[in-house]
Specification:
alpha/beta, TIM Barrel, 8-stranded parallel β-barrel, two-stranded antiparallel sheet, 12 strands, about 45% helix, globular
Length: about 250
């Protein structure tokens, strides 16, 4: 397993296509060199139908992106549906807390949820946006740093672009929290929200992917927040670039 060969796309990048025609979307991604996807919903397919679809397009789904409330209410059903298909990680997108009380409430609930999901055979990771690196709830430390230092049992999927935009270097985070960072969202930009090709923005991914490989991170998960019609070209360029780094 290698970040240079296991390249997935966060399927939200092309969510309208995926919701309208998931088989056709997977076909286009496969043609672009993608061999996995991070889903954003539990599909209307039966588990057997979904397994057949992944087999047909030789795709894996190492992780799924689901909101906190959905996970709290339905994690058992999601585990039953997804773990037999090879899912390894549930990823919860950023949850903005505003004060110490909210921080205590959220981290307590998130850790308990993580314990339950680990007992079922998967992992639960927290995915940052920018506020986790800019907003402080106590002691002048950003929310993400507080979580990482207060709770070594919390795992993370680092969104490299938003961490960088928040003033933190991804390489430094990998050095400081190598056991807790278990996944990376790879996207790039030029200082704005809109994405660009991963070799054209403010982040140099060559040393980041090299360190991720050394740490045993097993998938590169691409994300694209720009015109969805150009996402497939983005994927093709990203795959060529990443393969060239190996």
């Amino acid at each position: 397993m290698s970040v240079y060969t296991n390249i997935a796309l966060q399927l939200w990048s092309v969510h309208e296509d995926a919701e309208r025609d998931l088989p056709g979307t997977l076909r286009r991604l496969k043609d672009a060199g993608i061999n996995g996807f991070e889903h954003f919903k539990v599909t209307d397919y039966t588990r057997e139908e979904f397994a057949a679809l992944m087999k047909e397009y030789d795709m894996q789904t190492p992780s799924i992106h689901l909101g906190y409330e959905l996970l709290v209410e339905h994690w058992r059903e999601y585990c039953e549906y997804l773990l037999p298909l090879g899912l390894k990680r549930f990823v919860m997108p950023g949850y903005h807390v505003h004060n110490e009380e909210e921080y205590a409430w959220f981290t307590d609930g998130f850790r308990k949820l993580g314990e339950n999901i680990r007992a079922a055979g998967a992992d639960l990771l927290y995915h940052n946006h920018i506020v986790e690196f800019t907003d402080c709830v106590k002691d002048g430390k950003p929310y993400w740093v507080r979580m990482a230092e207060d709770f070594p049992d919390i795992g993370f999927q680092v969104d490299c672009y938003w961490a960088t935009m928040g003033g933190y270097k991804v390489l430094d985070l990998l050095e400081r929290y190598p056991e807790q960072i278990r996944s990376l969202h790879i996207k790039n930009g030029k200082g704005e929200h809109e994405s660009c090709d991963i070799d054209k923005g403010i982040i140099d991914f060559k040393p980041i992917l090299a360190r991720a490989e050394e740490l045993g991170i097993d998938w590169t998960v691409l994300e694209y927040e720009s015109d969805p019609s150009t996402a497939y070209g983005f994927c093709e360029n990203a795959v060529k670039y990443i393969h060239g780094l190996k």
